[in-house]
Amino acid sequence: MTQFTPTTSTETRNADLAALILRVSTGGLFVAHALMKIMVFTPAGTASYFESLGLPGFLAYLTIAAELVGGALLILGVATRWIALALAAELLGAAILGHGGNGFFFNNEGGGWEYPVFWAVTLVALSLLGNGAYALGKRD
């Protein structure tokens, strides 16, 4: 029979650092992607792109808001588990609806689904880690 062994302080500290690194890097990437949609492609241009995929244009504005606010909340470490899962769902939608027909590799024309799926998996791992100790939100 396997006996439960509590984690050591080193394991806890490593998990807290892993959560911090994943939160800040992933949150920063989301903020950067939102800013690209705002400053480079423009919100109206992003909405037009969504419409070219057969999606309602208003989803572009929701996507921009989710990436900007969600990214900031990840960086701060607020509601990490829920924000990471919501953003993973957004990325799976992007993989299927935006990149699904372009093949696997992201360097394919139009970008394949490899990158958004990898990012979604990273977010699921982050949701399992939670905020960690180095966050504004309570440790979960």
UniProtKB/TrEMBL annotation:
Lineage: Bacteria, Pseudomonadati, Pseudomonadota, Alphaproteobacteria, Rhodobacterales
Keywords from the named record: Cell membrane, Membrane, Transmembrane, Transmembrane helix
UniProt xrefs under PANTHER family: INNER MEMBRANE PROTEIN YPHA-RELATED, OXIDOREDUCTASE CATD-RELATED
InterPro entries (UniProt xref): DoxX, DoxX-like_oxidoreductase
Protein location: Cell membrane
Any single Gene Ontology cellular-component annotation: plasma membrane
A Pfam short name: DoxX
Protein topology in the membrane: Multi-pass membrane protein
Keyword Transmembrane: yes
UniProt key word Ribosomal protein: no
Family under the similarity heading: Belongs to the DoxX family.
Chain segments annotated as transmembrane: 20-41, 53-76, 83-105, 117-137
Top-level taxon in the UniProt lineage: Bacteria
Name of this protein: Putative oxidoreductase
